[in-house]
Amino acid sequence: MARLGRCLYCAAMQAWLDAALSLLALPRYGLSTLFLVAFVSATLLPLGSEPALFGLLKLNPELFWPAVAVATAGNTLGGMLDWWLGYGAHRVVDRWGHSRSHVKAIEWLERLGPKACFLSFLPVVGDPLCAVAGWLKLPFWPCAAWMLVGKFLRYVTMTVALLHLWPN
């Protein structure tokens, strides 16, 4: 009986996933879907926006610059949300205590200031970096500007490389 319940759960989950994916299908919604995927992928949730950007551009190569701009905007706004989450989480993080590596990372980030947010394009550490910048109360707009530059350069570089590797 437990196995039947598990199978029903898996079938329901698959049906939900299929419905969500068909709702967000790139050919139908295009740039709005790309924006949403880029935004969510910049939060602390594990999602990559590069496959969505690449897929959209394979279907619509004429959208190269608009797609890069939309992905950059969505990803930057997601990073800005991370900044605000970090800003609001300051009191919670203070309760964790301060390990040696934690203190060194904070000192490094304080020394670099908002320029450290340029590295927000890096996998694994980029999104938490934005949250820590907010937690440290680094200036919001300079951090957002550095995020924008880093994320834009990442999207241009990765998209050109992927389109070069898979031209057809």
TrEMBL record:
Pfam families: VTT_dom. The chain crosses the membrane at residues 21-44, 64-85. Keywords: Membrane, Transmembrane, Transmembrane helix. The keyword Nucleotide-binding does not apply. InterPro entries: DedA_domain, VTT_dom. Residues 64-160 form the VTT domain. The keyword Transcription regulation does not apply. It comes from the Bacteria. This is VTT domain-containing protein. The lineage of its organism: Bacteria, Pseudomonadati, Pseudomonadota, Betaproteobacteria, Burkholderiales.
